[in-house]
Amino acid sequence: MYFPDLMYFVFLAPGILLTLWAQYRVKSAYAEASRIPSESGYSGAAAAQAVMHQAGVDGVQVEPVDGFLSDHYVPGEKILRLSPDVYSGQSLAALGIAAHESGHAIQDARRYPLLVVRNLLVPLAGIGSNISWILILAGFLLGWLGLVKIGILAFSLVVLFQLINLPVEFDASRRARIALVDGGLITPEEDVYVAKVLNAAALTYVAGTLTSVLTLLYYLFRSGLLGGRRAS
């Protein structure tokens, strides 16, 4: 067996194409919305604080972090980190992204069940991502199907994480848009541009999940567990 082989790219083609499309959508939507200042004049950091305060969430620290679109919320530390353009920016893109991350802080405060499960899966998915391909490759090369199965099981944790993460991200975006409009931080007309940014970002998660699922199917096919001929 040649690893990866032609069948790998056949299986992964839809995921690769969707990933490229999602990346284009994100760049396009972000570029458009980043040129439009919000009428409220709020910065991303101020909007994040306002969204959380409106939801009754206190005690979350908002701080800048280096990088482009490196924005994220750290549940265990109650810290919301925003990239420079989002932290100090007053564009609709900055407000949308900041509010989305605030949505995760709200989920954490409300003990949103899927977020709780996702957080529990983070270390397991990390281990699965790091060792699965090693186990699978070694199993194929040595002809040990049992080792391949262990590797596939490890990679399944990554797929499970991705599947659970999808609704978490969609819910955070939903909370963000509602909070921005209801709090008067953006107008309904401005929400159109915020929606473009958040929907494009959500598409990247869909692409990542699809790619993981297709990769798992490829492993199952190549191992003979999904109707394929067992590779040797």
Explain how this protein is built.
It is a single chain. By secondary structure, the chain is mainly alpha-helical. Helix content is 71%, strand content 5%. It has helices spanning 6-34, 44-54, 84-87, 92-109, 113-142, 145-182, 188-222; strands spanning 61-64, 72-74, 79-82. A three-stranded mixed sheet has the order 1-3-2. Helix 2 packs parallel to helix 4, helix 4 crosses helix 7 (188-222) and helix 6 (145-182) packs antiparallel against helix 7 (188-222).
Which properties best describe this structure?
single chain; 232 residues; mainly alpha; 3-stranded mixed beta sheet; 7 helices; 71% helix; elongated
Series of secondary-structure elements, N-terminal to C-terminal: HHEEEHHHHH
Overall structural class, as computed from helix and strand content, comes to mainly alpha
Mean pLDDT level: 93
Unreliable spans:
none
Name the helicity range: over 70%
Q: How far apart are the first and last residues' alpha carbons, in Å?
A: 6 Å
Number of helices: 7
